[in-house]
Amino acid sequence: MPLPSHGQHAHNYRNSFRTYHIHHIYRMPRDRSTTRARILAAAEQLLATDGFSALGVNAIAARAGVDKVLIYRYFGGLPQLLAELARDGKVWPPLSEVAPEAPSADDARTHSLGALALLLLRAELAALRERPLAQQALAWELADRNALTDALAAARAARHDEMLDTVRAGRRVPPYVDVPTLMAILGAGLTYLALMSRTSGTYLGLDLSSDESWHRVDKTLAAVVRAVLETREM
Amino acid sequence: MPLPSHGQHAHNYRNSFRTYHIHHIYRMPRDRSTTRARILAAAEQLLATDGFSALGVNAIAARAGVDKVLIYRYFGGLPQLLAELARDGKVWPPLSEVAPEAPSADDARTHSLGALALLLLRAELAALRERPLAQQALAWELADRNALTDALAAARAARHDEMLDTVRAGRRVPPYVDVPTLMAILGAGLTYLALMSRTSGTYLGLDLSSDESWHRVDKTLAAVVRAVLETREM
DNA sequence: TTGACAGGTCACTGAAAAGTGACAAGTTCG
DNA sequence: CGAACTTGTCACTTTTCAGTGACCTGTCAA
């Protein structure tokens, strides 16, 4: 059913509609910055709750209660919007906030590499487990490589560099242990378990929905680091 | 360029087209089973090369050189097609093939849990690294939960059960070590690193595209298992 | 031979997607 | 006031997708 042409007819309807309803509907104040914020918040919520497969200009605009053309006008497009979200720390909160007890790179000289690594791994796991947005970002990064995920991957890489700087500043290097690689394996493991807990209940016999399982993970993690650091050969 | 209406005209065009070209184009022999196989192979290739975001009935049918309606007719739909792919071992080859040196559950009694776990982890990593299809399945499982991923997740869970049965059959249980949890952490870590190597070159300072990095991962993995097994407390 | 059925092709619908051009409605400042 | 600019609304195009109804075509058995 093609619309009967257009032009005058549509315009008249629209105008009368507007002037009629203007007394009834609440109208957002016209403010670019708050509208931008609404869009960002909508994208954030949508990604956290529905996942990246549901993330599009239409969905974001609908959720923000805003016309989608504003996404293009204010951000340039979805990739730039995502990049801003990542830049703002909405995806990855500052490391200092996640691990306040971690020493800065300068203070770290008195700590051993292993102790620092363990501290950071624990903090990152806890942070990741309670941040669906970060979980979605990581899962998306594994799924696809495009302009959108590149923006998120850059934010993650920056975070990792920060962690590595802290660890590298540690003084007491265990002689026979490849701590960076150990940290990569364990960090990857914790990340994967956290991601799996969203969609699947269990991994390799481990019930990812039970607190007891996560307690065991934490204990085993600490035991691994301790045991490896005591190793005299490798 | 809109087509000039439709109806009668289109029919006439179509019929004459067919009777004209029937002498020129090669026609596949009409065989349900080979057509099914073509569809399965197309889905397999497409998933392995282009990822799950590109996987749809249209794309599969086009790649198989077949009409998409046959996917519905022969499989019932995409989920069932995926389930069959997973059932056939196209995603996860039999464990015995991946780790031929692993003892069966009956023979495993003479091995320690740790040695078995290490053996299986190494074999699974090697298998995963050279199987884009399995990588895609795992990444998809993290990204979404739907009828399609459920089929793949079921195949993975079956594989894991098989691994756990083998490990559980090991006799010599190290006293103070939570081997199952250790295996879950390490298995998850290796999996995540393998998945990251597809889309991102580096993880926590580890260059996932270099053989040297993977050699270090292997060494560290073995060191971890050995060190933890020697632990006398936990 | 003919009719029934299995194998296969095609055209179409409806929904959802990204993106754009035109315009209306406020706001600001001369 | 009123011109210029900003903010926001709407209609529309094009593309791609899953899914379906109608049809054609080869085969085999009665």
Question: Which features would summarize this protein structure in a list?
Answer:
homodimer; 234 residues; mainly alpha; two-stranded antiparallel ribbon; 2 strands; 65% helix; disordered N terminus; DNA-binding
Topology:
The structure is a homodimer.
Chain A: H1 8-21, H2 32-50, H3 57-64, H4 69-75, H5 78-87, H6 95-98, H7 113-129, H8 132-143, H9 147-168, H10 179-199, E1 202-203, E2 206-207, H11 211-229
Antiparallel strand pairs in A: 1-2
Helix pairs in contact in A: 2-3, 2-8, 5-9, 7-9, 7-10, 7-11, 8-9
Chain B binds a DNA duplex (30 and 30 nucleotides) through helix 1 and helix 4.
Characterize the structure shown.
The structure is a homodimer of 234-residue chains. Chain A has 234 residues and is an all-alpha fold. Helices cover 65% and strands 2% of the residues of chain A. A two-stranded antiparallel ribbon of chain A has the order 1-2. In chain A, strand 1 (202-203) and strand 2 form a beta hairpin. The longest helix of chain A has 22 residues, at 147-168. Chain A starts with 7 loop residues before the first helix and ends in a 5-residue tail after the last helix. Mean pLDDT of chain A is 84; it is low at 1-25. The interface between A and B is large, with 56 and 56 residues. Chain B binds a DNA duplex (30 and 30 nucleotides) through residues 6, 10-11, 14-15, 18, 22, 27-28, 30-32, 35, 56-58, 66-70, 72-73, 77-78.
Write a brief structural summary.
The first copy, chain A, is mainly α and 234 residues long.
